[in-house]
Amino acid sequence: MRSLLKISVLSLFAALTLASHAADAARLKVGITLHPYYSFVANIVGDRADIVPLIDADANPHGYAPQPADMIRMMSMDVLVVNGIGHDSWAFEILDAAGMRKKLKLIYANDGVSLIPVAGAATGEKVVNPHTFISTTAAIQQVYTIARKLGELDTANATFYRDNARRYALQIRKLRAEFDTKITGADLSKFRCATMHSGYDYILQELGLQVTAVIEPRHGVEPTARQLAETIDRIKAAKVNVLFAEKYFASKLSDTIRQATGVRMYSISHISSGKYTPEKFIDEMRENLNTLAAAINDSSKGGA
Amino acid sequence: MGQGHGHDAITVSTAALQLVRPAGARFEGLLLAAIAAVIIAGLALYVRELGRHESHEPLYEWQVSAFDTLTGADQAIYNALFTAKDDIPYIYDDINVTTPDNAVFRWPNLQDLQDYELPPFLHDRSWQQNGSLKWTLFEPLAKGEMQGSTMYLGTDGSQPAQGSFLLVVGHTHAGFQNKNAISIWWNSKNHVEMPQSGFRDGLILQGWREVVPHNGAQEVKRIFGDDAGSSTSTKEDQKQADQAIQGITGN
Q1: Are A126 and B52 inside 8 Å of each other by CB?
Q2: How far is A34 from chain B (nearest CA, A)?
Q3: Which residues neighbour A260 within 8 Å (Cβ) at sequence distance 6 or greater?
Q4: How many other C-beta atoms are found inside a 10 Å radius of the C-beta of residue A170?
Q5: C-beta separation of B171 from B180 below 8 A
Q6: How far is A280 from chain B (nearest CA, A)?
Q7: Interface of B with A in 108-137 (CB under 8 A)
Q8: How high is the pLDDT of residue A25?
Q9: Which of A16, A100, A203, B96 gives 20 to 30 Å between its CA and that of A256?
């Protein structure tokens, strides 16, 4: 009798262990390349999947040089969420180096995003802007795409992912309502802005704000002396009173422009640095919108 | 130094030197300059094209590109509508969740869209900045062959040279091939009346053009060609996911 009980307990234990291993095996390991995608995926999958950032949290994704550890992390992933249109091209170097290009499934977050050209480009050419994640509406579109694609890979949780995506989208949309309350009574006709690079075009367009000039001819490429002189002339002629610069990457260039034109400078986050957290995207976008509201209110009062 | 060795033995009269130009010298010079010009122009074009967007999506005459053609407020409104087309079926699910199966399900009205804070319908500052379009809803008849489609018309914008927008929810019972397929149309006129139906041919005759985005999927194809890596989506994957999702529009 006693040995029968022993066998029963052992069998139960073995069954539970097997079930637990099976659940682990079914649990998706979702890789991400950029900080906003960590937040998007975390809010979609909740506790039903694991998230694996491809590069370290403190690494700068601008011009990132792939490391051997990235390949090891990549090999543990079931799927990788990428921007794919120009902001994480190093992920494709890692894919090639790890021999995973045709093996690892990719979710192109921008698949369903209606892209816009870089605003205020001096050359007038229409170049695709890859900064779709510094936004609200384009961010929501990406959340929906990621949730749908994850649901295709993990059909058991497809409804769960979709519902979470919707809840998260409503939270993102609330940011716009908060922003609106902060600029009540502001005269937006006095707001004229230039940006150091094209990173803020999506959010500015969503808010109905136009960019007059972009300083960098290409993302991360400083203008020549002649280009800079022409841009300064354009800023003066268009009576630009606000310059948005990157929060995490200081540039002497912005000081030069500020001194030459008298514009007031504000810093906006690229959401591409610091710890990976589920709250990061909403926290930093809220901060960005607060900065935009401050810039609008200052220019409305003639403070620039 | 013996005779025949050394320069002393040679005397040259400079007066005897005569430059003889080849017969085709001018032609060769021109040819060389032309080849150089072609090479330089070719290289310049190549460098220019490297960083340039080229719209590879072929468009019909009755379509316009959101990326290449629309600008300013019109582009902003289209991009908001482009995401709204995903939200509207979700809102439809929400508002009909308690509707009995034998009753008529309704599509979100303009108040619903306000309540859900959905751009570009929401009356906020960005709506004002983008021309304060006046939105109206055409609700299809409950029954009959001429039920029509659900249509949201935005017109009379205050921005200079602003056009009008129409979001059409094509219903199968109204003769559309795909269930609740949503399309977005743009008309260059600032003021237009609500169309009688959402059918393509009628809209085209009235000056409407379907707006086509340059989306991320097309851009990835432009960048990587066939080397874009493994996609997550096969048609079978999508079908299984659709079947797995519980919801009115998902079924």
Answers
A1: yes
A2: 16
A3: A232
A4: 14
A5: yes
A6: 22
A7: 116-119, 122, 124-130
A8: 55
A9: A203
The one-character DSSP state at B24 is T
B143 in reach of chain A (CB within 8 A): no
For A282, which DSSP code?
Answer: H
**CB nearest A176 (choices: B76, B117, B128):** B117
Q: Does B225 touch chain A (CB under 8 A)?
A: no
Q: Which residue of A has its CA nearest to B213?
A: A114
Could you tell me if A30 and A78 are in contact, meaning their C-beta atoms sit under 8 angstroms apart?
yes
| DSSP bridge partners of A214 | A195
In this prediction, residue A232 carries a pLDDT of 86
Taking a contact as any Cβ pair under 8 Å apart, which residues of chain B between 44 and 73 contact chain A? Answer: 51-53, 66-68, 72-73
Q: CB neighbours of B60 closer than 8 A, spacing ≥ 6?
A: none
User: Residue B184's closest CA among B205, B158, B156, B154?
Assistant: B154
Per-residue tokens: A205: 């367009």
Separation CA B215–CA B213 (nearest Å): 5
Q: Which pair of structure tokens corresponds to residue A224?
A: 């020549």
Q: Which residues of A9-44 are buried (b: 16+ CB within 10 A; e: fewer)?
A: eeeeeeeeeeeeeeeeeebbebbbbbbbbbbbbbbb
What is chain A's alpha carbon radius of gyration, rounded to the nearest angstrom? 23
The string of pLDDT tens digits covering residues A11-68 is 554 554 444 445 555 799 999 999 999 999 999 999 999 999 999 998 888 889 999 9
Q: What pLDDT, on a 0 to 100 scale, did the predictor assign at position A266? A: 93
Which residue has 């319908």 as its token pair? B121
Helix ranges restricted to H, chain A: 2-26, 35-45, 68-75, 90-97, 137-153, 158-182, 201-206, 225-237, 252-261, 280-300
Q: At what angle do helices B72-95 and A137-153 cross, to 10 degrees?
A: 50
- What residues of chain B lie within 8 A of the CB of A162, using their CB? 245, 247, 250
ipTM of the complex model: 0.86
Chain B residues touching A114 at Cβ < 8 A? 66-67, 78-79, 82, 213-215
- Give the Å distances, CA to CA, from A278 to A15, A168, A283, A304: 34, 11, 10, 36
> Is B223 within 8 Å of A127 when comparing Cβ atoms?
no
Using CB atoms, which residue from A95, A152, A206 is nearest to B229? A95
Distance from CA of B129 to the nearest CA of A (A): 5
Amino acid at B212: V
Q: What is the dihedral of CA B127, B128, B132, B135, to 10 degrees?
A: 30
The DSSP call for residue B134 is: E
Q: Which of B117, B129, B217 sits opposite A173 (nearest CB)?
A: B117
State whether B244 and A151 contact (CB < 8 Å): yes
